[in-house]
Amino acid sequence: MAVTIKQVASAAGVSVSTVSRAFTAPDQVQPQTLQRVREAAAALGYSPNPAARSLRGGRTGSLGLIIPDIANPFFPPIFKAMQARARRLGYTVLAADTDEREYDELETIAAVSKQVDGLILWASTLPEERLRELGAEMPTVLVNRHVEGMAELRISLAQGIAQAAEHLKAYGHTRCVFVNAEHGEHGRGKSIREVFEAHDLSLTELGPYDPRFETGLHAATLVAAGEATAVLAHNDLVALGVLHQFAKLGVGVPDRVSVIGIDDTLLAATSTPSLTTIRISADEVATAAADLLIDTIAGRGEGRVAGIGSRLIPRASTGPAPG
Amino acid sequence: MAVTIKQVASAAGVSVSTVSRAFTAPDQVQPQTLQRVREAAAALGYSPNPAARSLRGGRTGSLGLIIPDIANPFFPPIFKAMQARARRLGYTVLAADTDEREYDELETIAAVSKQVDGLILWASTLPEERLRELGAEMPTVLVNRHVEGMAELRISLAQGIAQAAEHLKAYGHTRCVFVNAEHGEHGRGKSIREVFEAHDLSLTELGPYDPRFETGLHAATLVAAGEATAVLAHNDLVALGVLHQFAKLGVGVPDRVSVIGIDDTLLAATSTPSLTTIRISADEVATAAADLLIDTIAGRGEGRVAGIGSRLIPRASTGPAPG
DNA sequence: GTGAAAGCGCTAACAT
DNA sequence: ATGTTAGCGCTTTCAC
């Protein structure tokens, strides 16, 4: 099939170990020998077989990224950025989707973990105990989950939410609605309630529903019937549903109601009106996660907690409160 | 590190080959032995090491999917569907993004190809000669590229476009614009021109530009200044730009102009107004591509050409021509 | 600085 | 039906 280290060795007139070193520890081989090996390798189109490498060294050169749903437009940019970062560090990224089901998550992790040097688990739904076991078995970085002693990337919406609250307040809003589309206690709701309260903004919570477009449609109908002048949605997709339904009901945005999303996905930038939203930088997140995992693989990341912030991106869906 | 076939063998009181067979050819081992092996494996938490497997057998159990841009919302559902299909057939999917640059594409392919049993190349920008070389080296399926003798998946917009033309015609439109956002001769333009002509619809072409939101913004301004009553955009993203700019200019959709996109991404379903678009089924595409590649790997797919159709999804962005 | 050789975990002859 | 054994391509002691 492909060209092996042996062929390169004989072509360059050296032993296989020299060829191996030429690739893994170039400083341990004499410059001119190195040169010869490199030429031979290039001429033959050689590149090391990762299977053999990993079998021998226990190292695969890949990072595993386990996410709930790649179809959520929040993730592709993250995957992309992580790929770019990892490549520069000599790694490849293997992404897998769990379809938001715990059973699939376990199975997916089992399948992927054999082929990677470490795992990034995004918003895992696994019980803490399983996470702990996993962490004992292989380098693991948790995103938005906390387990004592494990490396963690914490994405904080706090700044973005505070900016949203200031933004609404400056526009004269006082009555706001939060459309919750997340079950469980790890959600965005708590932080939002606290911050809005601190800013003296009344906050009514709808839900929890599911994070779908239709949730927004439904919530908008409820909001239109009430007194609130601003809506903060669980994410951009839900916010888009809100926008859509308001348009249908003839409720002006932002004249009658202002709308804010979360994530700053492609959806937010391209909607009509464009959506004010809270951005979590894909580049920052991906870079931090990849670096943290690589450090953990190297044994110097264990238990470290990295933080990523957020900020408000004001667009056309927010404006002065009516009246 | 992990538990090996050897440990399972001694735990079950059999030889390693029996354990191996228990996993790869269960029918060749006696039921009760099989049972014992399985229990031992389960008890120890054994699962085969893919690196060793692939080193030995030359088989990795992975399919490589090379796409131009995973951030294009068209691709995630395809990746997802392919993952689901591949998993049932005993394969894993490894996705990689080329960032639409030829240099990256070559490098990406080189990196990925060592770790997979075959490649699906989506809308490759590589010259035909390179594709041919690649096909000689490893099982390859081309999507939307044609090279004599290589397996190919052809996605045809013809039906969708014909339905769009009928749809517009039935609504009384006569003057249409196509916003071209693709360079090169493999584009969507040719088919569209032919079909619209056959339906007696005048078609003005704008561009070629780039497939971006801003392209739609720009094109909408041009269209608003003209007489056309219907716009067909290169894809949903561009169509969304058109929608956005029309809203800004106060051009009613669909009252003054009707708008049609292509791809039926999430963007189309969630826009305001919701976007009439031409759907290419992610499930069909992914299934066909995966099956074709697996057949090619098995030596019975070479040179086969599979076809996938498309259809119009009428939504709220199209309606009767004005006047 | 370089070479020889062992062995990573597994599969596929081959032998029994 | 099951066991023995030779490597797959590579890295890594250990010699020299």
Automatic annotation (TrEMBL), chains A, B:
Keyword field: DNA-binding, Transcription, Transcription regulation
Pfam families linked to this entry: LacI, Peripla_BP_3
Domain HTH lacI-type: 3-57
PROSITE patterns found in the cross-reference section: HTH_LACI_2
Domain of life (superkingdom): Bacteria
Family matches, as PANTHER family: HTH-TYPE TRANSCRIPTIONAL REGULATOR GALS, LACI-RELATED TRANSCRIPTIONAL REPRESSOR
Protein name: LacI family DNA-binding transcriptional regulator
Organism this protein belongs to: Nonomuraea antimicrobica
Taxonomic path: Bacteria, Bacillati, Actinomycetota, Actinomycetes, Streptosporangiales
